[in-house]
Amino acid sequence: MNGLEVSSIEADLSCASLILSVGISTRYVYATYKKTPVTTNEAEAWEAVKKACGGLHFLAIQEDLDSDDCVGFWLLLDLPPPPV
Fold it and tell me: In degrees rounded to 5, what are phi and psi of residue 60?
């Protein structure tokens, strides 16, 4: 992530993916998942809780699945785009 300003992560329910927004207008597919009723419910619940928290969420990166340590941590906040 050198040189990119991570701004938010959102669940795209139609594509069963997590979208990573960086900067003002750049978005990447960060991860995909198998679309099932369970994963769709989880994605909807995550977005609902994120909205209830005023858009506050985080991204934590671990070196491997068994690690207890984070090698990267971003505190993120969804904000509406400024009026033009």
Answer: -120, 135
